[in-house]
Design goal:
Strand content of chain B: 5-15%
Largest interface: A-B, 43 and 41 residues
Structural class of chain B: alpha/beta
Number of strands of chain A: 4
Shape of chain B: globular
Largest sheet of chain A: 4 strands, parallel
Radius of gyration of chain B: 22 Å
Distance between the termini of chain B: 26 Å
Oligomer: heterodimer
Number of helices of chain A: 3
Shape of chain A: globular
Chain lengths: 92, 381
């Protein structure tokens, strides 16, 4: 696993984000950070992103805005939408 | 649908509550998307070179001698001989704590190569919305593998030479000199002295790189390595697809007599194709396609048809891993479509009836090599 890559969790609900962070870290991922939609850029600094996990409990406009910003930053970064519903947006 | 609003995006979903197996698969895909490209022929990444020839013994000795020295290494050899395998082995034995970072100098357009190697500052150019570090900084404390160095554009050769001399880089758009501790391993299938004569490669850079040369002979010059490589690949196919191939002595002799112009990579692709279309088969010489049957007239079209012919859908007595098997079929069909499309991803996507973004994701997932320049840029980001 690429050691210096960072997984970023974007959510407005700290408890929910920290819970997901713990689960991802449990899977032996060493670099996981939590951010809010408005501060995710400053939270990553110079680090390269492995993936961005974004909660779809956020307002739809906020989700769209963050995805667009991540695309501006690096369009190759995988974006994982953390949802509760059973349907999927996965582009397969 | 988010995928419609953001067709460029690599979108995934994760359901709540999180299932560990689902998250594990997702993380594997994420790491795979960031891993340096792999080829089936690179069978010996973890354990070093596979083979019983004196050539492999000599290369193994050279690797062990140079690994801890920190010297710059220039690996030469035809495509598919395993130059990246040697580079990874050197890094593995070097004791260096940093990462092994690879970049294909021939696959990235000149204007992007500088920012890939050295990074850039915010505002350095249109679209540079944030600072980004390059491969040299990523490899700090580790090894930077400059693949296809013979294809590096001349202006970049000048900048690379400066880094090799001074061990400092400057990000594009930046003024700060950044010290980097990077061990350089370069590789090429080109004849660099000839490139120097042609004015395509700097002589001073050649001597900087050629501190410790390692030449990997083509597979046709070391046929005794073919059976061990075949067995290595059989083991990998068993691990990957859950299928077990068996070659008779006659078949192995035919494989050993073949010239393998694509070297270990071609051999790896061939074994993988057989694993997909003839899982659990016992393969004798008669079952091999031309050109392994030297006594029959050449018919490349028939051979191609023969090897991709549908095998039917019989379930092997031993059973199989359906998911891995289907993934293998998918990978094989994508390879065939890319080949037929001349490496043009959009055309291959049309042939397969999928969107380009979907195909790009699968190409990345399976680590397929493509000639599409735009995709190469995408993948080396």
């Amino acid at each position: 696993m690429p050691g210096t890559l960072l997984i970023l969790i974007v959510d407005e609900e700290p408890e929910r984000a920290e819970k997901l962070k713990s689960v991802i870290e449990f899977m032996d991922v060493p670099q996981v950070r939590v951010a809010e939609p408005g501060n995710w850029r400053s939270r990553i600094g110079d680090r390269r992103l492995a993936a961005v996990f974004i909660s779809d409990a956020l307002e739809r406009g906020v989700v769209h805005s963050v995805i667009a910003e991540v695309g501006e930053h690096d369009p190759n970064v995988p974006i994982v939408v953390v949802e509760k519903r059973r349907d999927t947006n996965r582009d397969d | 649908m988010l995928s419609k609003a953001f067709p460029w995006a690599r979108l995934y979903t994760l359901r709540q509550p999180v299932q560990f197996d689902e998250l594990g698969e997702l993380l594997e895909e994420i790491w795979a998307a960031h891993s340096p490209r792999r080829q089936p022929g690179d069978a010996h990444v973890a354990d070093g070179l596979v083979g019983e020839s004196r050539h492999i013994a000599r290369i193994t000795t050279l690797i062990e001698r140079v690994a801890t020295s920190g010297a710059t290494v220039l690996i030469t050899g035809e495509s598919g001989t395993g130059k990246e395998v040697v580079a990874r082995r050197i890094h593995h034995l070097s004791g260096r704590k940093g990462q092994f970072v690879a970049i294909n100098c021939g696959a990235i357009p000149e204007q992007l190569l500088e920012s890939e190697l050295f990074g850039y500052e915010r505002g350095a150019f249109t679209g540079a919305v944030a600072r980004r570090i390059g491969r040299f900084e990523l490899a700090h404390g580790g090894t930077l593998f400059l693949d296809e160095i013979g294809d590096m554009p001349m202006p970049m050769q000048v900048k690379l030479l400066r880094v090799l001399q001074e061990h400092v880089i400057e990000r594009v758009g930046g003024t700060e000199s950044i010290e980097v501790d990077v061990r350089i391993v370069a590789a090429t299938h080109r004849d660099l002295p000839r490139r120097i004569e042609e004015g395509l490669f700097r002589e001073d850079l050649y001597y900087r790189l050629n501190v410790f040369p390692i030449e990997i002979p083509p597979l046709r010059e070391r046929p005794e390595d073919i059976p061990p490589l075949v067995h290595e690949m059989i083991g990998r196919m068993h691990a990957r697809y859950g299928v077990r191939l068996h070659f008779t002595n006659d078949a192995m002799a035919a494989l050993s007599a073949y010239s393998w112009p694509g070297n270990a990579r071609e051999l790896g692709n061939f074994i993988e194709r057989l694993a997909v279309i003839r899982p659990h088969a016992r393969i004798d010489a008669d079952a091999l396609p031309w050109p392994f049957r030297q006594d029959e007239p050449a018919d490349e079209a028939a051979a191609a048809e023969e090897i991709v012919a549908p095998p039917g859908h019989s379930l092997p007595a031993e059973g199989l891993d359906l998911k891995a098997h289907l993934a293998g079929v998918e990978r094989d069909l994508i390879s065939a479509a890319l080949e037929r499309a001349g490496g043009v991803v959009q055309r291959a996507a049309d042939e397969l009836g999928v969107r380009r973004t979907t195909l790009v994701e699968k190409i990345n997932r399976y680590g397929l090599r493509v000639r599409d320049a735009a995709l190469a840029e995408d993948r080396d980001e």
